[in-house]
Amino acid sequence: MAVLKMKFTQQRRVRLAQGLWLLSWLAVTCGAFIFSLGVYIKIELLRRDEVMENKEIHCVPNLLMMVGLASIGANWVASRVCQDSLDASRFPRWKVLLLLWFAVAALLCCLLLTVVILSYALQGRLEESLKVGLRNGIRFYKDTDVPGRCFQKETIDRLQMEFRCCGNNNFKDWFEVQWVSNRYLDFTSQEVKDRIRSNVDGRYLLDGVPFSCCNPASPRPCLQRHLTDSRAHYNYEYQSEELNLYSRGCRQALTDYYMSLMNSTGPGVLSVILIQISVLLSMRYLQTAVEGAMALESPEGESEGYILEKGVKETYADMKAKAVELLKFAQVDPASDGEGGEEGEKEADATEKAATPTPAS
Amino acid sequence: MALMVVKFDLKKRVKLAQTVWFMYWFAVLAGILVLSLGLFFKIELRKRSELMDNNESHFLPNLLITMGLIACGINAFGGKVCYDSLDPLKFAKWKPVLKSFLVFCLGFNALLVVTSLLCFVMRIPLQFTLAEGLKNGMKYYKDTDTPGRCYMKRTLDLMQMEFRCCGNDNYRDWFEIQWVSNRYLDFSSKEVKDRIGSNVDGQYLMDGVPFSCCNPSSPRPCIQYQMTNNSAHYSYDHYTEELNVWRRGCRDALLSYYGGIMNTIGALVFLVTVLEVAVTVGLQYVDTSLSTLSNPEDIESESEGFLLEKTVKETFTDIMAKMKSMGKGAKVEEGGEEGVATVS
User: Fold this and answer.
1) Least CB–CB distance from B211: residue in A183, A211, A219
2) Which one, A90, A266, B139, B187, has least CB within 10 Å?
3) Is any Cβ of chain B less than 8 angstroms from the Cβ of A153?
4) pTM surpassing 0.80?
C-alpha cells in the first residue's frame, strides 16, 4: 500500500516539472539568503571579537554558511533534473544521483533545524564568554603602553558608548579595578599614596568611572569622580541618581544584541526549511511519476506518483533486510579467502536458493 | 541640410526602437534614484535641524524629489511611445504629441543640469546656517530645564561623539560660554563666586569641556576640567597634548559631511542628465525615422533619421522669426484698435 499515492497524467507531469523547476530556483535564492545571513552574523561576531573569550558561538554562522552553499548546489542540481525529467532519454542518468540527492536534502533540513536550536542553546555559553572577555578588557583598560593590549582602552570606550552600557554587570565594576595607568599617577602626592595603601594589592582604586560611561541624556554635566560621595557634588544624591551614567551592564547589552540578531533570523530559517522540504517531496513525486510513465507501454499515459512504494513499516523492514544483507556479504567475503571458501560458497548457494522462491511467491 | 542624418531600414529601425525602449527603463530607475536621493537628503537635514536653528532651506531636496517624480513620468511615457513605435497604427496616435513632448524633454534636461549645479553651489548658504545654529546650540547646552531647548544637551553630546568634533571651531569655544546649569552650582562656595565675579556678564566660565569631547584613542583617562592648568594634572602639558580631546571643530565636521553628500548627489544627477539627453536624442531619431519613410504605405522601406531638420543656425533663425511674428501679430492687433479709436 503506497504512501500518499497520486495519479499523474502527462499534462500534470509537465506542470509538476515546471513548478518544481521554479521552486528549486526559489530554493537556490533561499540558499543564497542563508549564506549571506551566516556571513552577516559572522562579521558582527568578529567585530566584537576582542571582548569574547571563546569562539563557540561561531559554529552558528559557520553552519549557516556551509548549509547555504550546499543548498545552492543541491537545488541547482534539482533544477537540472527537472529540465531533463520530461526527456525519456536523459532522465535515466540521474537515477543513482537522485538517491544521493534525497539524502543530502534531508541532511540540509536537519542541519538548518539544528542551527535554530543551537542559536537558543548557546546563549549561556555566549554570556560566559562575554563575562570573561569583558572582565579582561576592564582589567587591561589601563595598559595602553603594553603591546598587544594597547587598544583595549579604545575598544572598551567605543563599546560602552555604542551599546550604552557601563562595566560588566554595572558601573560598580570600575570601582574594583585600577583603570588609570601608573604613568599618570603622581606617586609623591598624599592622595595617591593613601589610595594605594588602602588595599592589599597596592592598586590605585577610586570610586570613579571612565568618560565613556556618561549618559548624554542626563540633564547635568557628567559626574565621573567621587560617585559614592553625595557631598562631593552640589545637589547630588548617590542612591537616587539614575540618569548620570548608563545603568545597564555591557554583558547584558551585548547578549541582548546578539540574541535578538539570531532570533530575528529564526522565522527566515524556518521558512527556508519548509521550502526545502516541499522541494524534496515534489522531487520524489516527479521521480516516481516519470519512472512509472517510462515503464508504461505508452509513455504519454497516466502513471502513479508516491512518496514511498510500500507502507512505512514495510519500507523500514525492507531497508533493514537490505542493510543486513550488505553486512552479511561483507562478512562472508573476508572469510572466503581462507578455508571458509567452500563454506562461504555453500552459504551463498543457500541464500540464493532461499532468494529464488520469493519472487515466485 | 539636416543635422546628423542616419539612414534606416526596417531592421535598423526595430533595433533602434528596442534599444531606446531599454534605455528608457534604465532612465525610469534613474528617476527613482534621484527621488530617493532627494528623500535621503531631506531626512538628513531634518535629523539635525536642531543644530541649524530649524532655519535650514529645504529647497534643494524638494527640487530633487520633484525632478525625480517628473523624470519617472516622462521616461515611462517615452518607453511606452518607443514600444508602440514598431506598430504604425499605435504610433499614429502618439505622433501629434511627440514634437511638444520632445521640446518638454529638452527643457527638463536643462533643468536637470541646473539642479546638478545647484547641488555643488548650495554648500555656501549651508555653511552660514550651520555656523549660526551651532553657536546657538552651544549657548543652550545648559538649558535642560527650559521647554523647547531641553534636548539640546543630548543632541550636541551625541553629535560631538558621532562626528568626533568639539566646539564650533575648536574646543576653546566651550571656555567662552557657561555650559553648566545654575541648578548644579553651589553659589555659597568661594570657587563659584570667584568665577562669576571674574567676568562682566556674571557667567560661570571655566577651562573645561563636556565629556562628549573626549577622544577614546587617548592613552590616558580623559582630562576635561582645568585643561589649561598644567600643574593640575600629573605629566600633562596642554600645549603638546593632542589626543586628549577631539581637535576638530563641529562646523568643519558637519560641513564636510553634508558637502560630501551634496557632491555625491550632484555627480549622480549629472550622470542621470547624460542618460536623459541620450534617450531624448534616441526618441528624436525614432520619431524622424518613422516620419520620413520613402514609401509611406510600405513599412519596410528605407527612411532617414536626423537630429534637427535644418542646421543649427537655420533652426535658431526660424525660432527667432516665429517669436518675432508672434510679437508682431500682437502689436498689429493693438495698432489696429488704436487706429480704429483715432478714426472714430
Assistant:
1) A211
2) B187
3) yes
4) no
CB A140 within 8 Å of CB A149: yes
Q: What are the residue boundaries of the structural domains of chain A, listed by start?
A: 6-137+262-322
**B338 CA to centre of own chain:** 51
CB contact under 8 A, B186 and A161: no
- Residue B6, classed as helix, strand or coil, is strand
Domain boundaries along the sequence of chain B: 3-127+252-309
pLDDT at B273 over 90: yes
Name the residue among A104, A93, A120 with its Cα closest to residue A31.
A104
What's the pLDDT tens digit per position in A178-232? 999 999 999 999 999 999 998 888 899 999 999 999 999 999 999 999 999 999 8
Candidates A144, A184, A221; nearest CB to B235: A184
Enumerate the residues of chain B whose CB falls inside 8 A of the CB of residue A224. 211
Neighbours of A227 (CB within 10 A): 23
Q: Do A153 and B212 touch (CB under 8 A)?
A: no
Half-sphere exposure of A2 (CA within 13 A, CB side): 13
Please tell me which of the candidates B154, B186, B216 has its beta carbon nearest to residue A154.
B216
Residue-wise pLDDT tens digits, B176-220: 999 999 999 999 999 999 999 988 888 999 999 999 999 999 999
Contact residues on chain A for B154, CB-CB shorter than 8 A: 216-217
Angle between helices A10-47 and A250-264 (to 10 degrees): 170
Contact A145 B219 (CB under 8 A): yes
- Window 162-191 of A, Cβ < 8 Å to B: 179-181, 183-186, 189
What is the pLDDT, as a whole number, of residue A336? 53
Whether the predicted pLDDT of A349 surpasses 60: no
ipTM exceeding 0.90?
A: no
Report which residue type is found at A59.
Answer: C
The whole-number pLDDT of residue A291 equals: 84
Cβ distance of B184 and A180 shorter than 8 Å:
no
